[in-house]
């Protein structure tokens, strides 16, 4: 989504390249990635839309589309960062829950575990009219402050067996 402008100096004739977006290294090697592409993927993760919806929006504004492989790479990069922050947040709130429970008189058991009141919920995504999606989720929330203490996602497919199964056709 970033533009690179070529500006020729009227005095020296030097061709100057100007990026309309900052860049960052997303891996240990390889070319830099444009910040705007990663931000677009993060925005899509946040709003629950995908590359097709993003490209539909951009085409309405007469902006060239974002290549699907670029989008997927940036989505994975942003997803890892979001996952890291979410895991740290859960760990921090579990520690707060533990301190709160201890301060109100709860005692640790023989495994140094403390009981805290929480709520658990899970579900499988819906596709169409049936619950036939291959992905599901679960979360544990604190009853004292409503914060997420832990979560997981599940997928009913195996990328190895699906690839093997597809090769027979």
Describe the structure in your own words.
By secondary structure, the chain is α+β, with helices and mostly antiparallel strands. The chain has 2 domains: 30-110, no CATH class; 117-169, no CATH class. 40% of the residues lie in helices and 22% in strands. It is built from 4 helices and 7 strands; from the N terminus they run ββββαααβββα. The protein has helices at 35-47, 51-60, 68-103, 159-167, and strands at 4-8, 15-19, 23-24, 33-34, 118-124, 135-142, 148-155. A 3-stranded antiparallel β-sheet has the order 5-6-7. Strand 3 and strand 4 (33-34) form a beta hairpin. Helix 1 crosses helix 3. The longest helix has 36 residues, at 68-103.
Helix content: 40-55%
How many beta-strand segments? 7
How would you classify the helix and strand content by structural class?
A: alpha+beta
Roughly what fraction of the amino acids lie in strands? 15-25%
Mean pLDDT: 87
Q: Helical segment tally?
A: 4
- From the alpha-carbon coordinates, what is the Rg to the nearest angstrom? 23 Å
What coarse outline follows from CA principal-axis ratios? elongated
- Count of the domains: 2
Strand order of the largest sheet: 5-6-7
How do the helices and strands follow one another from N- to C-terminus? EEEEHHHEEEH
Main β-sheet description: 3 strands, antiparallel
Q: Low-confidence parts, pLDDT < 50 over ≥5 residues?
A: none
Euclidean distance between termini CA atoms: 37 Å
């Amino acid at each position: 989504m970033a533009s690179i402008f070529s500006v020729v100096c009227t005095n020296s004739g030097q061709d100057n390249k100007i990026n309309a977006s900052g860049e960052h290294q997303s891996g240990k090697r390889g070319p830099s990635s444009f910040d705007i592409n990663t931000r677009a993927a993060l925005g899509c993760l946040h709003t629950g839309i995908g590359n097709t919806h993003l490209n539909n929006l951009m085409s309405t504004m007469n902006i060239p589309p974002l290549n699907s492989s670029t989008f997927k790479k940036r989505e994975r990069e942003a997803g890892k960062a979001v996952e890291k922050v979410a895991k740290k947040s859960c760990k921090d709130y579990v520690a707060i829950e533990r301190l709160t429970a201890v301060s109100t008189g709860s005692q640790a058991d023989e495994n140094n575990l403390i009981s805290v009141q929480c709520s658990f919920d899970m579900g499988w995504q819906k596709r169409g009219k049936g619950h036939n999606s291959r992905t599901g989720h679960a979360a544990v929330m604190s009853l004292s402050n409503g914060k997420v203490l832990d979560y997981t996602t599940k997928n009913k497919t195996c990328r190895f067996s699906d690839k093997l199964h597809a090769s027979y056709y």
